[in-house]
Every structure is written in C-alpha cells, then in structure tokens.
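so my prof wants the structure for this chain in the tokens format not the other one, which i didnt know existed until like an hour ago. anyway here's the sequence
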Amino acid sequence: GYKNVGWNNVIELYQKLNDRLLQSDPGEDTLEDLFLRADRIGNKYQTSEEIREFNQKLTAEVNKISDQVDRQFPESEMEFVDYSATTKKQKSAVKRKRR
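here's what i got, hopefully its the right format
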C-alpha cells in the first residue's frame, strides 16, 4: 500500500514555526522595519537621478492601476464626512422635530 509521509513533514514544519514564533525576541525587527532598512541601504547605491526616475515610474504605474480600478468600480455617489462637533447637535435637533 501507499504511505503518506507528506503530512508528517508539514506538521513538523508547523511545530518548528510555532516554536520559533514563541521564542522570538520582542525587540526583533518587524518585516516593515526590514523593508525600510533595505530601502535605505539600496538608496545609498543609487544616484538621485535613478531614485527620481524610479519614483516617477512607480507613480505612473500606481496611477494606471488607480484609473483601472476606477473604471471597473465606478462610484456613482459622492460620500462626505463631516467631523465637526456641531453636526451631531444638528442631527439630534432634527430628530426631535420629526417626532
């Protein structure tokens, strides 16, 4: 017959990952910190022209994606958010008048 040895490897890996997570140092860098550090290191080896050119290309690509999303998911209704304190008082006054 057949013997499935794959699950034993998966379970062992899962247990090792859990052990690693439990032993991790709270002062250890997060993934975000590591990416930021890598970005700073990478910027040391690029000229300001190369950095500017990359940022322009990135901005253009992000704008293309944003335009595509807007075309696929158009918003037919504008949403306004008013964070002023007077809005709540006005709304409660309107509710009282309706009753």
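also thought this was worth mentioning. Residues 47-72 form one domain.
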